[in-house]
């Protein structure tokens, strides 16, 4: 993976501590989400624990990782400069604090606290969207990736605004006063969040990352698929969300079909780049391969469900039962695989890049434990297969519990492996990455990169 270094100029982004802080905080939310999910399965968490679990994973882990990665690499890919570093730091405080407050509020059924958390996240996503929008406006010739990111920014603003209204509904019943059905709002919120913000960002990023990390360029078939996805997916997300919000089944059905079409055509591009890879498979490529298979399987499984009724409560994420599992796998393995490059890369740039050529330095892949990476991948894949089997077959409860345990162990090992990179190799360690200027001054004789 060190071959990638020549094509990335990290100096155009913010100081490496800014995106690295996002990823470390996101990993903490991932661990919290796993623990809350396990406790919820055991009936040990009061309140609406499953919603706390969902938001810790989707907002705390996936969205905050996306915020950090886009803040760093949008300026790099677009050949411009980030509009504001202060907004990049502020977005983490607001979104991170908001999702933590959200989780506590759901667990304690404190609805005014829930509204406070929603408002904090809304402000954080607004800061993020404004910062990235101002950055993208300086791009002279925006391409496919920038177009996807622009769509995702709009989705972040819409979903968080709707989230504030939904949170306020718990405390004041505001949706009923506005004549909006809670279930309809929830369906639109899920569509904007998962398909509009998260999946659109994933597609846009992978149009850059897949060729970069496979060292293979898109060919004519890939470009045709890209053109289909670039229209079908954004239009589909808008129609799906609008159809659900207005309870217009036909509109939502058209949107659902377009989202599925976009997912399938993108999966073709993604899988073909991995098949034609000219590099040895590593932690990133293996996870990308699982993600490509999961995305194609999700599209195949979800098409019948959304043709039937895309507004059904059990079809919010596609096919009932298997749809959520496959979609979480598709997104989760992309985020996990990318994290296996982003975290070591940022640490390497900060700690070792200026030593290259003067003394022996480790490669990017040397910073994490490859054995742990292979082991936790195997654990999570086996757990995923077990969960998929349990969703369509009658299996003993003990096997379901075993799958959950394997997934939890694998996720904790993944988080520990990446936090270990920061602990052992970052100039100032984990505490300084998280606390920034509030941390004690330099402890390893390195310059402060958080200016």
UniProtKB/TrEMBL annotation:
Instruction: Specify whether Transmembrane is a keyword of the entry.
Output: yes
Instruction: Show the stretches that span the lipid bilayer.
Output: 20-42, 54-75, 87-106, 111-130, 150-178, 190-210, 254-275, 287-307, 327-349, 377-395, 401-422
Q: Does the keyword rRNA-binding apply?
A: no
Q: Which residues form a coiled coil?
A: none
* Database matches in SUPFAM superfamilies: Cytochrome c oxidase subunit I-like
**Keywords associated with the record:** Membrane, Transmembrane, Transmembrane helix
Among InterPro entries, the record links this protein to: Cyt_c_oxase-like_su1_sf (IPR036927)
* Protein name in UniProt: Uncharacterized protein
């Amino acid at each position: 993976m060190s071959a990638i270094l020549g094509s990335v100029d990290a100096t155009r982004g913010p100081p490496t501590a800014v995106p690295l802080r996002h990823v470390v905080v996101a990993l903490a939310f991932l661990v919290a989400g796993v623990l809350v999910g396990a406790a919820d399965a055991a009936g040990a968490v009061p309140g609406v624990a499953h919603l706390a679990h969902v938001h810790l994973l989707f907002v705390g882990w996936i969205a905050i990782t996306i915020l950090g990665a886009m803040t760093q690499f949008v300026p790099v890919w677009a050949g411009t400069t980030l509009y504001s570093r202060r907004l990049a730091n502020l977005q983490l405080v607001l979104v991170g604090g908001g999702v933590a407050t959200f989780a506590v509020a759901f667990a304690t059924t404190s609805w005014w606290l829930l509204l406070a958390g929603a408002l904090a996240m809304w402000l954080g996503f607004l800061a993020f969207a404004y910062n990235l929008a101002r950055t993208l406006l300086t791009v002279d010739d925006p391409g496919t990736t920038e177009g996807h990111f622009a769509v995702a920014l709009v989705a972040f603003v819409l979903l968080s605004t709707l989230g504030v209204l939904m949170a306020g509904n718990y405390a004041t019943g505001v949706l009923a006063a506005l004549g909006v059905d809670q279930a309809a709002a929830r369906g639109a919120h899920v569509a904007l969040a998962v398909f509009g913000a998260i999946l659109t960002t994933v597609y846009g990023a992978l149009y850059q990352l897949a060729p970069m990390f496979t060292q293979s360029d898109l060919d004519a078939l890939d470009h045709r698929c890209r053109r289909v996805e670039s229209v079908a997916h954004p239009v589909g997300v808008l129609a799906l969300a609008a159809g659900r919000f207005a309870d217009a089944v036909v509109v939502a059905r058209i949107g659902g079909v377009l989202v599925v079409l976009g997912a399938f055509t993108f999966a073709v591009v993604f899988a073909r780049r991995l098949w034609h890879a000219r590099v040895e498979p590593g932690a990133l490529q293996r996870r990308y391969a699982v993600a490509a298979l999961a995305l194609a399987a999700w599209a195949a499984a979800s098409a019948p469900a959304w043709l039937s009724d895309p507004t059904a409560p059990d079809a919010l994420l596609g096919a009932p039962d298997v749809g959520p599992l496959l979609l979480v796998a598709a997104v989760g393995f992309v985020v996990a695989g990318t994290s296996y490059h982003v975290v070591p890369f940022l640490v390497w740039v900060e700690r070792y890049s200026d030593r290259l050529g003067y003394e022996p330095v480790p490669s990017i892949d040397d910073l994490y434990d490859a054995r742990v990476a292979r082991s936790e991948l195997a654990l999570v894949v086996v757990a995923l297969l077990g969960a998929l089997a349990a969703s369509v077959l009658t299996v003993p409860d003990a096997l379901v519990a075993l799958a959950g345990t394997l997934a939890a162990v694998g996720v904790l090992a993944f988080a520990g492996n990446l936090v270990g990179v920061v602990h052992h190799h970052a100039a100032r360690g984990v505490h300084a990455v998280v606390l920034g200027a509030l941390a004690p001054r330099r402890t390893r004789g390195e310059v402060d990169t958080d200016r």
